[in-house]
Structure formats: C-alpha cells, structure tokens
Amino acid sequence: MRRGVQAGRVSRYSGHDISCVRIAYPKHDTRTISGSSMSQSFAPFYDVNRTYEDNYLQGPFGAFAEVMKDDSAAGASAQSAQTTQSQSSDQAEEFLGFRVNLPFGIPAGPLLNERFTTAAFRMGFDLAVYKTVRSRAWGCNAFPNVLAVHPKNADGSLVPGSAELDEGVLADTRYELPISISNSFGVPSRDPDEWQPDMKKAIAAAGDGQLLVPSFQGSRVDGMDRKAYIADHVTTAHLVTETGAGLMEMNTSCPNEGHNRLLCHDPHLVGEITEAVKNEIGDRPLIVKLAYIPNDTDLETMVRETVGHGTVQGFSTINTIPARLVDANGNQALPGVGRDRSGVCGNAIRGAGLDMVGRLAAIREKLGLDFVIVGVGGVIRPDDYKAYREAGANAVMSATGAMWDANLAREIKETLR
Fold it and tell me: Is the pTM above the cut of 0.70?
C-alpha cells in the first residue's frame, strides 16, 4: 500500500492517494446541537457549552454520566467486572507489554480526571489517556474553547500546508456530523498535589484488559533555558511514576504553545529530553505524541533520535492541525490575544492522521525498528478504526468522535465479532 520513504521530500499526504483512505459518510447524518441548547438525548461527555473548570468539577455528561450513576448503584468493583466480562474477548491484543481487550480508546484531551477515565472504561474504551499533566498548576485559555469548524472541502477535510489554513476556516456553534471542532485549551493542569492522587485512582479503576495511560509534558516559563526545560520534563515524569503508572505518554505536539513552536519540530531536543526521561522512568514504556510532520526526512530523524537510541517505545499521532479560525464576517473566532489560530480535530484531520501513520509504518519497516504506532485523528465511525489498523497502527484512539458518540467503542467491537 505504501511506496518507499523518499528522503527530503515534503509531503502533501506524501503522494498518497488519499481517496483510498477517506471514508464517505451519509449526507443525511446531520445531528446538531446549538450553542444555547442541547438535546437531552444527545450530549457529548465534555459539555462544550460549559467552561473547562465546570467540566472538570461537574463532568462527565451524557452517556458517560449515566454509566457512572450505574457504577455507583452497582458498586464500582461489581460494575467493572460486569463491563469487562461482557466486552473482553479471546482476541485481546498485547500493547507495550499489557493485554488489552481491543487496542482502541480515547487520547489525551477530553478525559479530564478519574471520573472521565473511569466512565470511558465502563463504556468499553479499553485505552484511556489521562489529560496531560504538568509539574505545576497551569491555567486554561478563556471560554469558549470548542467551536464547530467547517472546512471548505466537500468532504470536510483540511490539508496540511493548504492556503485555507492561513486564509481562515469558518468556526461557529453549528455542531454537525461528521464533526470537526477547535481545540483551544492551552494544556491546563491541576497542581500535582491534586492530579497525583486522582491519577492513582484512575489507574486502579481500569478493568480487566483495560489500560490507563498518563500523559505529561514539560512547561516553558520565562527565563527557562534548555537545561531547565529538559529538567522539567524529568520532574513531571517522576511525578507520574509516583502514581504507580506502568507506562506514560509525553506530549510534544500542542499547537497552543505557540505557532511554529512545537517541540516535535525539534527532533534533536526531543531526543535529549526522552533520554533524560527514560533514565528517570526506567523500564516503563514511553510514548511520544507527535503533530503532523510533513517532511519524511524530519520524521525519520525523529525516529532515529528516539527509538533508535532505545528511549521511546511508541508514537501517538496526530494531535491537531493548526488553522486560523474566523467567524462568518471573517473576524477572529476565538477571543483573546494569540488565539487567532487553534488546533482543529475531528473529521477534518483524518486524512492527515492516516498519512502520518502510513509514513511512520514505512519508516519502521525501512529501519527495522520495533515501536508501536497509535493512530489518532478523525476516528468517528468503525470503518475509521479499520482504516488506521490497515495503515499500520497498533492501536487507535478517538477524542472528538468519542465525545459525540459515547458508544463508539462498543460499535467497533460489534463490527469485529
């Protein structure tokens, strides 16, 4: 399916005929929620009409809230046993040394705390990534953080490097399926004194064949030099180990850290950081979260600087595609200085996600290296899970799709029976 990696070539989906990876969805599938009201029968588990703080303290919502009520009524251990017994399978797979019923779950982002991750487990998502944490408390961008995004392409896709990303993509409160949304939070974090005990509880709540994956990142502050920035990653990784985590994911891909300032754009620095982190965490597997990297040479350099040195055991990709978001009048859609651009996720980025997975898989084969690939981006239907696995992903995750379809994991499992 993939031709050989061509060194130095800048890719527009790497010459891949993306017509073979786009999934056609019915035109009539246009369920909506308005910016002012939401159907009681259809509520994303992260309420986009509430602030991040309200979601953290009061969420999850929708079907995730209902399953947690059942959990409380039945008793956590009994409900966990019932859920995993009904969903575990003889086809369970190995993921970085852990047995999982199905290598499908929810990536870093919408699972804000233990209540969210436990609800995800109970809904059949066997991989749950705990929201990215830091070595210190870190505030969230101003509300709103999520808007519906409407690319111009008929299939709703955004193409990395296209003029539309700079000219402006319409963003409003018309949430329609297949869904694409903005992701403009700024990687908020509670203080370690709060997130450590909560993460420990989240790890313990995983059922049989389920796995909690903590996500962390270093924090840039004024006056911080390279050595201090690396040290902050190590400190945060150590804090994660204290929760009893058996593995972890390091975020290098947040677009809210500043346009063109993504850590993953500097593979040599990522290599330095992962070496220091790996020395701290020992044998625990380390996954690195990547943004879309268009140049094959840069992507191969990332693999050589990390996996090639034995410091990284997997990559999760992609995060989002940064774009300038505008309202119907062409004005900045999200309020505040520095928020003219936002990461876009959901249906719009599936083509880019599949392309990254395919190119990583080709590099893995070319170099003869052993690492897992977690495919993320635009997974909103069971066929998307299959497409990612066929492209070379060892595991697949869905954030936006899962938010709008809490039963997605169960639907995928049903199609695989």
Answer: yes
